[in-house]
Amino acid sequence: MALTKEILMEMYLRMNHARHFEEKVAYFFSRGMVHGTTHLSVGQEASGVASAMALDDGDLASLTHRGHSQAIGFGLDINRMMAELLGKETGYCKGKGGSMHIADIENGNLGANGIVGGGYCISTGAALTQQYNKTGKLVLCFSGDGSTNEGTFHEAVNLASIWKLPVIFFIENNLYGMSTHIEKSMNIKDIADRAKSYGIPGIIVDGNDAIEVYETVAKAAEGVRAGKGPVLIESKTYRWQGHSKSDAQAYRTKDEVEEWKEKDPIARLRKFMIDQGMATAEEMDEVEKQAKENMEKAVEFARESPEPPVESVTEDVYA
Amino acid sequence: MKEMTYKDAINLAMSEEMRKDKNVIFMGEDIGVYGGAFGVSVGMFEEFGEERVKDTPISEAVIVGAAAGAAATGLRPICEMMFMDFITIAMDNLVNQAAKMRYMFGGKAKVPMTLRLPSGSGTGAAAQHTQSLEAWLCHVPGLKVVTASSPAEAKGLLKAAIRDDNPVCFVEHKLLYKMKGEVPVDDEYVLPLGQSYVRKEGTDVTIVTYGTILHRVLEVVEEVEKEGISVEVVDPRTLYPMETQTIVDSVKKTGRAIVVHEAAKTGGLGGEIAAMISESEAFDYLDAPVLRVCGLDTPIPYNRNLEAAVVPSVEAIKEAIYKVMNRK
């Protein structure tokens, strides 16, 4: 699982896609073209993208309500993602899911989830299928810090542990559950400590360091695939934007946000590549340009895609 | 055909489907060596082993949620809630996840899971082990809700539930577990879901009912028929999505309808069925308003006399029949 230049360039492209995707979503939201609510993952691109890229072909993942970076990391098509956010027929869910329900189950993406902690049990069950069918595949279960206070976290991690299921619980700790700082919602500093209660490894990574995230997940995956049972990884990161589009962010200071912007995971990966002599500044510029162009194409695809026919409203309730 | 109990018919349905399809697995609390709280799965652990008959921790949410995740990825899990009351703990995974997954993901997911739910009062177990919560489940598009009132139906309908590609809630009234009846031993004895059945033909009144209370209705019907009142009894079996034409046709024939169920009256299926009849072409044939005879709007009490008073009595059912008959 060596981190080749090819993988890193693709990672950099996807992280840029993730950043631009959120910028477009914010723009569309302000124009009323994306509605309901949406949760942007700006600042969490290394966490979402590098972890998903550390998976093997055929591995599975479940995503959170803040799942755009995770989905792009998993390899979902940005055209179909953008179309879904605009509610179009060409979207991953034919316009019925929106931001919080993007999924591609046939290809192992078990979906984003609008319920905090909603992916824990689903992922555990999907991991049971992998174990039962001896596929050698694993499930990456994304979740957030706040969700580890939900009952399902404890039920799912415990069950996965006693049954030694192939699942990585990947907790993106961005310090806030909506407006509530983690210090006010749990009496421990590190969520990784919770793994001890279930007899599984709890690992902390710098969620803004794409290299560290990738290598940690890839290494954990080896043991999980070998049947040693689940692993919990706590990815320490930060969201630059509010919880959702209606958040005035009165609960944190501008200084705090600025401090984290200094730890921009995208700028950091760029610097790493250049410093290591793995790529030139020009090559990185080219990837950035490509990402922008790809996103414009995604927007065009989404805008030009047809609305779902109204008759489809009653379709697909039952198989 | 072989005479067996309702619970043995359920055991047979699960076992036959597990022999036939290796993707069918069974999960729940104490279903393994113990054989389940009501002894429904006795012998299955010995036959299928711990890989397929999986004892879980006391964790209802993950039993249901893991079943949904396993179903979405290719298995066909059956899970047992020890008591129907305990689905309260698993509701997110049932309602927000399993039921919606297909629709909200644009028709890509299939969630072929079966949730077995021992329900109902009459065991003296008080408020948290005796509810009939089928109306809650019938309010959730994406779920199917099925109930069987005889051993043969239990086998045939459960096999259909296991083979169905949707999440199916299979409601088993606990008082029926020991009921005996002739059950086809044929592997392919499957009763289709989504079909209502005329359990007994009649000409004066239609009674729509299901589960254990259906047997009480049949007792009453036998009595009133001696008095010259002919009653048709319709059992929907699939409570949601319910096939309604059979009910409508029956009411058109008899001109009178009563819905009887054990579950609490307010917000229950009785109101739904009565409204459906009123909205249908059967309305013009009605000689009397549709009546409901249902459980009281209380939790189930512990005291035996009080518990018996909560659910529709023989007298209450009989009274309703006289009432609709006298309206003409």
From TrEMBL, chain A:
Residues 293-306 have a biased composition (Basic and acidic residues). It comes from the Bacteria. GO terms for molecular function: pyruvate dehydrogenase (acetyl-transferring) activity. This is Thiamine pyrophosphate-dependent dehydrogenase E1 component subunit alpha. Residues 293-319 are annotated as: Disordered. The keyword Hydrolase does not apply. Pfam families: E1_dh. Keywords: Oxidoreductase, Thiamine pyrophosphate. Its cofactor is thiamine diphosphate. InterPro entries: DH_E1, PDH_E1_Alpha_Subunit, THDP-binding. GO terms for biological process: pyruvate decarboxylation to acetyl-CoA. Residues 14-310 form the Dehydrogenase E1 component domain. The keyword Oxidoreductase applies.
